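Q: Could you write out the predicted structure for this multi-component system? I'm mainly interested in how the pieces pack against one another.
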Amino acid sequence: MDTTATVEPTETAVEEPQLVEEDLLVEDVSIDGMCGVY
Amino acid sequence: MTTPTEVLGRAWALSPSVSVRPEPFGALLYHFGTRRLSFLKDRRLLDVVQALPSSASAGEACAAAGIGPGELGRYERALAQLAATDMIQERP
């Protein structure tokens, strides 16, 4: 007698978090330590 | 740190240690003191920055550059970021 309970995989809709990407007008870059830069 | 809501009502000027290089995409700002390089990704933001010394407030500079009310938030945050990195300094 098989008493193994099988769990059917249920397909649940995974809602991806809405990524809100702000359109940034300023982008900062640090060049400290870059070769050739004094 | 200057919050975005405090930026527009104040008068600003480019820091004396900052060099501006206009580019087709906007501009490069280099701070000789902090060695920080900032990209302005909008040409109108450059117009705002260049209008700062002659404007009574950052809000006035934005208006002079043709920034509409709907876009003001983005420019406000950009100016706050420039202030936080000492690219622009408050002036009397």
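A: Regarding packing and overall arrangement: Residues 11 and 17 of chain A are 18 Å apart (CA to CA).
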